Predict the 3D structure of the following.
Amino acid sequence: MWEVYIKGFRSYLQLEQSLSANSVSAYVHDVRMLATYLHTFDNPAPEAITLAQLQSFVASVHEQELAAASQARIISGIRAFFKYLLLEEIIGADPSILLEAPRLQRKLPDVLSPDEIDKLFGAIDHSTAEGQRNRALLETMYSSGLRVSEVVSLQITNIYPEVGFLRVVGKGDKERLVPIGDEALKYIDIYLQTVRNKVNPAKGMENIVFLNRRGAALSRVMVFYIIKDAARRAGLQKNIHPHTLRHSFATHLVEGGADLRAVQEMLGHESITTTEIYTHLDRTYLRNTLEQYHPRFYNK
């Protein structure tokens, strides 16, 4: 019986929620964990599960000393499963609605200052074909705040230089239009005209912007190494990774006074609360805002 429900749940995640293969596998794994644990209660059918049984399962997960984020993800998977059962009218009430997840401490990401961005880009060797590609790649990531998965899958026909926009395929295969700056467009054009046009694309890669020497799309790991190498050459001591450019993009916009809703749209965040983390990154910016706008701030 459980396998029938799990199969239906998998289809629901893939077709209706448009989740990635990794997310689908994780959620299905979470439900299988629950099914295995419920042998303790003579393996009740999903429609017979109680909140007390789910709380007991959560307690058992906690005893495994998993990270709080991992525990929260498991609970998220269980909630998604019961939401599916409710939508399919397999259950009449959702027992997971009062299930509590561990509180996660929001970790503030490292960001680069504009000067550090200049140093990072300046450390790239522009005399090589790879260097020309890497400069265009990093300029694109910083200019538009793209995720690694979005930049490695970026297509030539989704670049609209005449209006300064990119069409990006983000999480859950959701498309969005994001602006891109003139500097990034300049380096993309240089790369396309002097390097990319000399590469023989592999089958199916004809429209991909950033290719390796074999004509295949860059991997996420390769982008990680490109940024790490540039950071090393620039002498930057921060823990820099591909997402650092996305964090820096958002932080610099917020520091400059950009509307948070606009930043949310550009980043492709479903919830504004995810974007709000960037209001906490620069305490100097926050204090300057207080000095400028608070009517009873006298230390001017």
Strands lie at 159-160, 165-169, 175-179. Residues 248 and 297 are 29 Å apart (CA to CA). Residues 68-87 form the longest helix (20 residues). The chain has 13 helices and three strands.
